[in-house]
Amino acid sequence: MSLRKGSKVWVQDRDSAWIAAEVTDFVGKQVQLLTEFNKKVLVLPEKLFLRDEEADHGGVDDMTKLTYLNEPGVLDNLKRRYALNEIYTYTGSILIAVNPFTKLPHLYNVHMMEQYRGAPFGELSPHVFAVADASYRAMMSDSQSQSILVSGESGAGKTETTKLIMQYLTFVGGRAASDDRTVEQQVLESNPLLEAFGNARTSRNDNSSRFGKFVEIQFDKNGRISGAAIRTYLLERSRVVQITDPERNYHCFYQLCASGRVADSYKLAHPSNFHYLNQSSVYELDGISSAEEYMRTRRAMDIVGISHEEQEAIFRTLAAILHLGNVEFAPGKEHDSSVVKDQNSNFHLQMAANLFMCDLNLLIATLSTRSIQTREGNIVKALDCNAAVASRDTLAKTVYARLFDWLVEKINRSVGQDVNSRMQIGVLDIYGFECFRQNSFEQFCINFANEKLQQHFNEHVFKMEQEEYRKEEINWSYIEFIDNQDVLDLIEKKPIGIIGLLDEACMFPKSTHETFSNKLFRNCGSHPRLDKAKFCETDFTLSHYAGKVTYQTDTFLDKNRDYIVVEHHNLLSSSKCSFVSGLFPSVAEETSRSSYKFSSVASRFKQQLQALMETLSATEPHYIRCVKPNSLNRPQKFENQSILHQLRCGGVLEAVRISLAGYPTRKTYHEFVDRFGLLAMEIMEGSYDEKSMTEKILRKLKLENFQLGKTKVFLRAGQIGILDSQRAEVLDVAAKHIQGRLKTFIACREFIANRTSAISLQAYCRGHLARKTYAAIREATAAIIIQKYGRRWLLKHAYMQLRSSAMLMQACIHGFLTRQRFLCRKRNRAATIIQSQWRMRKVRAAYSHRQSNIIAIQCLWRRKLARRELRKLKKEANEAGALRLAKTKLERQLDDLTWRLQLEKRLRVSNEEVKGVEIAKLQKTVQSLSLELDAAKLATVNECNKNAVLQNQLILSMKEKTSLERELTTLADLRNENAVLKNSLNTFQAKNLALERDLVKAKQDTDDTVKKLREVEQTCSQLQKDLRSLEEKLSNLDGENLVLRQKTLTSTPKSNLPGFPKPFMDFSGALSLPSIDQRSAFESPTPTKIIQPPSQGQSDSRRAKLTLEKHQENYEILSRCIRENLGFKDGKPVAACVIYKCLLNWHAFETERTAIFDHIIEEINTVLKVEDENSILPYWLSNASALLCLLQRNIRSNGFLSASSKRSAGSTGLNGRIAQGLKSPFKYIGYEDGLSHTEARYPAILFKQQLTACVEKIFGLIRDNLKKEISPLLGLCIQAPKIQRVHGGKSSRSPGNAPQQSPGSQWDSIIKFLDSLMNRLRSNHVPSFFIRKLATQVFSFINISLFNSLLLRRECCTFTNGEYVKSGLAELEKWIVNAKDEFAGTSWHELNYIRQAVGFLVIHQKRKKSLEEIRQDLCPALTVRQIYRISTMYWDDKYGTQSVSNEAISEMREILNKDSQNLTSNSFLLDDDLSIPFSTEDIYMAIPAIDPSDMEVPPVLSKNPSVQFLLSK
What we know:
Radius of gyration: 59 Å
Low-confidence stretches: 176-180, 588-595, 1045-1099, 1198-1236, 1284-1303
Number of helices: 46
Shape: elongated
Strand content: 5-15%
Helix content: 55-70%
Number of strands: 32
Distance between the termini: 99 Å
Strand order of the largest sheet: 6-7-23-8-17-11-12
Mean pLDDT: 79
Largest sheet: 7 strands, mixed
Structural class: alpha+beta
């Protein structure tokens, strides 16, 4: 074993057996370890075992899958699984069952047995049902008997496991029967009966079997239980008379005392009043009622076949034993004699004699004396008190042992053995290896039996190892294993074996245990398995396979002697009770007449054991090892030391040792490559299959101790350690490389950070110095500037004063001079104005006088000229020519003036237009300029306003500054007050939060109450609807009952003859109808009823012949309609319409005969059996449902039924019903509700019920066929197919480059199946109502199958598998969406369980989810037990994450422990609903109405003369 620092190992511990540790250092030849308790220890390497640090949190279900198959690995795996309530674990084919000490009924219900029926061994989670099923299947397939060996110490659960095995075998091999005398029930009920008489409370178990039991269950060739037989071994007889304090006697005594009247009749009282029971202070068992167990025992006796007389005799015998134990003896008058002690003892002795029905004096003599046979005769010897007590106890033990043997024989006779059976399954429930402080003869026999069974177990394990090697076709050599034959020879070899020496010592009366011990050590002292005890010379120590056991020989001789006292035999054989005398055959039948007949218990046990071993050798064995987890019988408590001892005693560790001798490590190629592929990454990059990869990896690592099988690689012990060591080295190198890179990255990042920090620091320092220098320079410059401006101001101030003085003086001078000049200029100007005004007046006067003179002269001259012109014109006017010339001249002047006028007008217009345009432009310009002027004015105003506002703000800011300065003084006070207010605010906020929480809680409570009220209202409305439907059904049933009564109300047979009118009823005329109306209403003529009167001359035989021929033709027509596929027309089934129209035309609904209806139902059933179910079942579902709807809508029962539906509460009599039925005469005519209804008699109503049953049958057949077809497909879909590993982005392929099967191909087959189903149903025009129901039930079955498989197979509860199933469910969702609600209905909701379970599998960060979040958000439909199951079985094969947190697991476990008594919620599996999901009313309401009137006659029937009425219509 190669160890290195950091190696995970197991180290021995005194308290915990083995604890986990880690190698921290090497000190010389020792290894320094750090344990899981943070303790450092030094251990030799040889005492360490390697530990798998990558072990799954939930353990493995088969311990052969452990990486390191060793003692601590086995113990740790059991502990991990037990913490998760996984009490079953495989070790190859061996099942280890750890007692949970709590009820787990969800593991043992009928549904769980259904899951394991026929499942391959190892496919589902480990279970006792899997072992039972494997034995049953092996028996049926190989026709070889099987045996199941259940062993374990007291309290480990052997008896319960045996009952579970028998329960499962009864389930798969028994038939349900109505009586209580079936073989399987008798076999099962034999358990409580044998428990009552053979089980008792011990210090380790409340229901410990104190005998060995081998049950042979026999089967016939069909696999049905045909018989059974029970064999028992070594009943602990001494317990009847002697028990220690924490223990109890056999259960039957306490049950009898609690039986009430029966106990009173036998003068029995509380168990504390009887010596055989009050030696211990324990009288009751926790959680068990003795009175109820008594009734259960009586029930078992009834089923087994024990008569009431025999039952009474059995309990009378038990009462007699109890009374016998209270008989005490006192010294007699003679020497060494004894008498009954007192009156109380006399009473009990009298009761014992009465119950035994024997002579009282003979009983006293039998107990107090003993006869010795000599040659001279019998010598009667008196017994002292101790001998009398011993005789009493011997009688009690003998009677009880005979009673127990009789019960076993009675059970065997009652159950019966099948002598013709060639196959059987034997279930061995025998005590496990025992090692106490005080070990007596019983422990010696028990351990001897376990040595025998261990030898058989070792041979079986070795054989299984060889079969495994042979199955994988590997080369192997003989594996040596330690045999315990030497111990068996020491015990049983004659004549010097322990049993032989013990029998020899028992034959000599004077032999004692000292002489036996001396002889044993003298003859066998040199045997390596035998040692002397250290502190007692008479004790000896045997080295068994499970360890050394020291036996105390004090009682060996007494317990081995099984003397039959003749006096006891004679006493009870003379009993008047046939039952008691039957237990003891007469002395004449005995072969010896000695007073004592010696019989060796050990030799008899050895013979029984040898017969048992021969039986087991002839069968194929299966082993179940039961383990008791703790000595306190408490759940969830795991004691390592105790369990390790039981594993050694049970041979489990021996099986591990045998496996270690061969190839203990076995891994599939996929697992090996997945774990060790990183040792040769160059091989993983190539294109090889997994087997070639495995071989190349092993060759590269130069390992030789391995074998390559067909599916697995086999490694010798230690090889996996080498591989893990090299793998750890590779991982260490990779880890160091990663660490180096990481450290480089961290150092580089730190250097960059430090450099950046240094640069920042330097920059800050330089900035600080520069700012300091700059501040000094700035201060100096500021001082100079201040000085400069100061000097400047002083000089400027002085200059300004001097300048202002000078300017003032200059201004005064300049002003004076300017005023003088101004006055001078003012005088000159005034003189000039005066002169100009005077000159202007003088010149104007002269000008005016001259102008007037000139005008006068001009006027005189113009007058003179005008006068000359006037005279000239007067002369010319007198001339004509002169006039014409003037006229033309004037015309020309007029034309010129006109033209000029027009031209001027045009010029004026154009000028005005131009002026208008220019004026408009100018106006626009003026407007724009005015707008700009306004904007400028507004801007100016705004600027002014802003300036004013700024001035106001400046004033306000100054005021605020002053106010702020005032407020700053009060800020400190406000801060103090603010702190006080914050504290009070925090307190108020806390109170507010509390109040808000209370408010939210109250709102939630209110919402819950409202929801509950709504649910109650919905439930109430639903109940009201159900009540209405029930009332309708009740009315229909009452109507049918009244129709049944119709036959009893008809008149005498004479009235039914032809020619006599059939009256309605022999009541008064007020209730009767005219005969014609009666006939039309109740007895419409039918083809079979229309009979010619005798006057027509037709004989009775002729009429009968015609009627028979007519019936035959009708039957042939109906047969052809049923047997031939007539198809559909416009979606309506032709066959249903034709059948209905034929029945309607033949008046079949109104006849009293049922032959034609029976013929239809019989023909339909025949077709369903003969034809192809896939095509014929949907066809007839459509036709049968259509025919049923036609009957439901158009057929009405007669007046009796109509009356019943409307009868009042007061009309309870028949007359009242008839009177109410006659209130509506239109009901008989058929005009009610606007429908034309046909009155029907009882046969038609019965036919409708038969047709309803037929529809339900067809629907059930289709559903069952669909489930059978889809089941194998679902088996392939629950687990993702294995695909090749991917390394470095490259997928490895097989050498042949064969294409891998697509993961979705299995789901594609489901989709194709659903498509074919939908096509079949729709092609046969099955109503959408039935398609929805079928789709819903199919998806419900898919949900149940996938969900149950997920919970039963751990390899399915993985992350990868969850993704695979989720993708498949997405495909189903697409199909449902495409199918639409008309055909799919609520199918998607039926997948609720599997959807939530798969969603839980693929969700990340499960450990962060609380139980409340899981229940409310993730899995609201799942129960806590189902969530617990998934959480404990889940393992992440993709990312390696863990399941839910330990806190959530603990919460779920507490909830499950509280609800463990509620059997309805204990099953985590879903049950398949086999009921019909609809009623007749549902069909009537869902299927649309069909009108058969327009249906044409099929061609196959058109030539038949009997259906011409169809053609005419």
